[in-house]
Amino acid sequence: MLQRLSALSSVLMVLVALWSFSGCGGEATADKASDGSAVADSTQIDSTKADSTQVAKGKNQKGKNQKKKVAEGVPVKVLSVATGAISEHVLYSATVEAEEAIDIYARGSGLVRRVLVEEGESVVAGQILVELVDDELKLNEAEARLACKKLEAQLKRKEELYNRQLLAKEAYEDLKINVEQSKIRWERAQLSLDYARVRAPVGGVIARRAVKLGDRIGANTKLYEMVNLSRLIAQVHVPGQGMRNLDIGQKALVTTDFLPDAKFDGKILRISPVVDPGSGTFKVTLELQAEGRLLRPGMFVNAHIVTATHKKAVLVPKRAVVYDDGMPHVFVVSDSTANKVRFEMGFDDTEFVEVTSGVKKGDQIVVVGQNGLKDKAKIRIIKGEGLRIPAKPDSTKDSAEKT
Fold first, then answer.
1. pLDDT in tens, 10-36
2. Cα–Cα distance for residue pair 161/57, rounded to 1 Å
3. Fold of 108-227
4. Strand partners, 115
């Protein structure tokens, strides 16, 4: 009996062991399934992570493209440095005047019948400007003419009697004097009639009209102001110490704010030998070349009197120059890079400055877009018309540092 119970216990123990093993296997299977599910979930997460990686990669690629665009450089225009003539000059202010300025006065008297010329019109010598009422003057001229003709006829008849000694010499001489007097009266009447028509004494342009229709004018009444625009001058007052640098015929360049894009040639016409003791200056008269009548009397001008000239100077346009601490610089282009170069200045005029050192002939310099550039900045050279200048300073250097 005890043996049977022992055998039964052994069987039960084996069954319990088998059940326990199968239970553990189920848990392992569940755990495996659980792990498999977890793996599946993490795969989905990894897929999401892969998508975000692509987005980040796209953003990085876009940023690189933007940086690449910035790295292309600032758009500019360039110009090759050349040589040419440039002059040193002294600058003076002056007012344009007409060398020939004439006031026209009446020589007769009466009422104005017609005004034939207005301000701004050109006239020639002898042209009628104003006509006066001349009815009475015409009658006086006709009367004087008839009286003269009558006396001339009498003299002719008396001359035959005188030649035959039938007329005394004294009577004949008196008659001759009367004839001469009548001729004078006739000429005076003709002159008065001619004075009823006011004529231009020389050719020119009417600058001001001071007469109007119906005015009663007398002798010496001012009617017009006229100028000759073909001969214009400007008078400058030069300090006494500058007298040794000037001579007759010396060239000058004249500019005016009225015509900012125009330049006019001139030369020294006269130099006064007397220095004004009050101001310490002497008067220098410039003759101006004003083709097309662009310059007009009364305009304020700047006269640049040339004192010296360099024939083959290295020239840089003033528009290309930038100043740093008061020192002149230009941006010289080399391999798509703008290098800021300081140079020494010589002569200068309205457009160019002479370079004595720092820049040489043939250098490519930035003439448009240089404002805001930094030294060693990357640039793009633009050709043709039009260039949009960046609103912000050059950021090439900052972008390169960030990269």
1. 655 655 555 554 444 444 433 433 344
2. 138
3. OB fold (Dihydrolipoamide Acetyltransferase, E2P) (2.40.50)
4. 130
